[in-house]
Amino acid sequence: MSRAANRGNTQARWLGTGLLGLFLLPTYLSLEASVGKATTIYAINGSAILLPCTFSSCYGFENLYFRWSYNNSETSRILLDGIVKNDKSDPKVRMKDDDRITLEGSTKEKTNNISILLSNLEFSDTGRYTCFVRNPKEKDLNSSATIFLQVVDKLEVVDNTVTLIILAVVGGVIGLLVCILLLKKLITFILKKTREKKKECLVSSSGNDNTENGLPGSKAEEKPPTKV
After folding, report:
1. pLDDT tens across 133-189, in order?
2. Are strands 32-34 and 92-96 parallel, antiparallel or unpaired?
3. Residue 59 contacts residue 137 (beta carbons within 8 Å)
4. How far apart are CA 157 and CA 180, in angstroms?
5. Residue 210 is inside which H or E element, if any?
6. Is the distance from CB of 33 to CB of 133 less than 8 angstroms?
7. What confidence tens digit (pLDDT) does each residue in 189-228 have?
8. Strand pairing class (40-44; 141-152)
9. CA–CA distances in Å: residue 7 to residues 15, 21, 70, 90
10. Distance (Å, rounded) from C-alpha 86 to C-alpha 103?
11. 35: closest CA among 72, 69, 4?
């Protein structure tokens, strides 16, 4: 195969890769649902917990559909669904499966919040909660995010004693090293100044000896010539 043919094939591959990137780019910049960084949250039996969910879209949205669903190893059901007309209107609930659920969402300040509050928790509420959104403005593109809720009898207090001891030891060692470095610099500075003073004293003493011995540049008195 000639060099021209190889060059043509290489350019074709680059062009194909570029077109694929342009095709996939809008997908990465489009609709996305998020439940935050935490994938698991804990709550005490009988309390209330906020299940967070927000959505974003670089292309805007109209009549966006949202839904919360629950599932565990035994059951699966839709808890709530609704519509967000546009970015100037708050989410509206169409269906709610449980009276303990309250929609806490809002589109004010472009938060696009469709979080829900689940009250009077029971141990059976433990499971996966999925937030789903679909945007007709993006040809019904959809996105979802899941968070796991663990309902417990009480929250365990984490003992941080060992961690604090380790941090204290590490901090003490670092502080000691800093003090040693500073002390070393101070001693080096003092020794340098001492050597400079000794050098000045030696130079001064050498000049005085030359003067007394009548060496060139000295001020020794000349002896009168000897009479014959």
Report:
1. 999 999 999 999 999 999 999 876 655 677 778 888 888 889 888 889 888 888 988
2. unpaired
3. yes
4. 39
5. helix 161-212
6. yes
7. 888 878 877 777 666 666 555 545 444 544 444 555 655 5
8. parallel
9. 12, 21, 55, 56
10. 17
11. 69
